[in-house]
Structure formats: structure tokens, C-alpha cells
Amino acid sequence: MRSIKRILPMLLLAAFAAACGKAPAEAALKASDTALEAARPQVEKFVPAEWKSLSDEAAAAKALFEKGDYKEAMTAAQGLLPKIQAAVTAAGAKQQELTAAFEGMKASLPTTLEALGKQLETYAAMKKLPAGVDKAAVTAAQADLPNVSQAWGEAVKAFEGGDLIKAFESGMAVKGKVEEMARTFLPTATDETPAGS
Fold first, then answer.
1. Contacts of 103 by beta carbon, 8 Å cutoff, 6+ apart
2. Cβ(98)–Cβ(171) under 8 Å?
3. Which end of the chain is more exposed for a tag (fewer CB within 10 A), N or C?
């Protein structure tokens, strides 16, 4: 009788483990791990916050399994799958958004850079500059413009090489600089175009 009393808790624990499904829980964890690893390149790059959240949840599911909480581990692992899919969708949307934004910069920045170069040459040749345009500023902008153009070329190279994040960040930095220079040196449609040199 005593031996049965000692063994009974062990039998109950084994029965509980079987009922909660150790093997199914393990299979669910493997499935979520496989899905997570497949999603990693895109999700980690484009939605890093979601990648961290998913990684933390996967680690928590594994911890439950190690503690013997097979039912909870399986539930957690199964719950990860739709979240991984959602993260993949979000990453794809972010990738498309960045691609479209960079394509937009490609359509406008080269033209503005060219216009800036020509306008700065015009200003540099003028004996009297328009009000609000400083000779030293023109000289500084002429010196800086090749660096801005080089930075844009590097952004395009990154884009063509598949490094969309670097391309976008570099492109935005160039865009900000070009827009700042354009506000200073390019006449708007309502401005009077500087005449003669």
C-alpha cells in the first residue's frame, strides 16, 4: 500500500503530462521556431520591435515547456504562428513603403541637385547678388554640393545592392540637405528669377 502511495503521484504526473501533450507541445514549439527563423530576415530588418516581441514570446514558450507546463507551452507556441504571419505582413508593408519613398527621391533629387548646381554657378558669376543671398554662403554651398551628390550616389548604390534601410536613411539625409539648400538658393515659382551676371 505504501509503495502504491509513493508511486501514485508519479503516475498521476505522467498521466497529466500525457493528457496535456508533451509531444504535441514539442511539435508546436518546433513549428513556431521554424516559422520564426524563416521570418527572421525580413521581420528583424524592417520591424525590429516586433521581432524582439516574437523572440521574447518564443523564449517564454520554451521556458514553460522546460518547466513541464506542456499545455501552456503548446498554447503559447500555437499563438505565435498568427503573430509571426502578421509580423511578416507588416515587414512586407514597411519594405514596400520604404521602396516607394526611395523611388520618389530618385525621381526628384537628381533634378534638384542639377538645378542647384546651375543656380549656384549663376550666383557665383553675378557681380551683385539678389537680396537675401550671401556670397560666402554661395561659395560654401558650391563646395558642399559635390559631397551631397556623392552621398546621394552612395544611397542609390545601397538601394541597388538591396540594402533598403541604409539607402532610405542615407537618402533622407541627402533630401533634407538638398531641401535646405533649395530653400536658400533656388527661386520658387513666385520669386523673381535673378537676372544677368
1. none
2. no
3. N
